[in-house]
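I am still getting used to backbone structure tokens and would like to learn alongside you. Label the sequence line and the structure token line clearly, so we can match residues to local backbone shapes. Go ahead whenever you are ready, and we will take it from there:
>
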Amino acid sequence: MTKPTLALQLYSVRDFTEKDLRGTLQKIKDMGYNAVELAGMYGLSAPEFKAMLDEIGLWALSAHVPYQAFAEDMEGTINAYKTLGCKVVAIPYLVKDQLPGGQNWPTVRDTIAKAIEACKKADMPLLYHIHNAEFDKLPNGEYILDALFKDLPGLEVELDTGWMRVSNVCPITWIKKYAGRCPIVHLRDTKVPSDGFQDRPIGHGDLDVPTIIETSIAGGAFAFVVEIAVSVEMTALEAAQKSIDYLTAQH
């Protein structure tokens, strides 16, 4: 079996990329990552960013692309991320009134439906990255997440283990539920104290990471994206290093 791709979500190291993009990307490569998930282009054009990544030896596996970018310039947005070599792109979030049950959902649904078809033609499937709002329920008792993916059957899902954990749902249950439709999993390990939740390096939190990985691969996932949204007790770069060390030791 082919080993899954291990990528780092660049939002994790935003404090470092803002000061030294190229140097931070080189550090990510030196850690052992061969791929990243983008969170913007840092003022560079797609060809400029692609050239930098190529020189360092990193692949832009995926990218978080705001819904508004598709709404305002669908063709230009898709072309830019295709130029970067992205395998998939993901809408990172929708606000509550844009989700099923919200007043703007019909318009948002129609725009995303068009984006799904345009991304499909570009051979770059469109995903949606979940947070915790999607685990709220509609008046009929249906999870917003289920309503979203039922209304948009061509949309794929980027489940996030950290947000599932803080939403008090079982990541493994939902990974199984969306097997075949979840090509990339956002891998986050967390501890959930009384005042919220805190990211930990992968393998150093509360989650059953080996089972999550095994279940995801069985369901068709080909890549895992490490995210450390807010690192505690160490820098985000240190947490990213501990995460890749754990994952490579496991696989």
In short: The domain at 5-250 is CATH 3.20.20.150 (TIM Barrel). The CA atoms of residues 169 and 238 lie 29 Å apart.
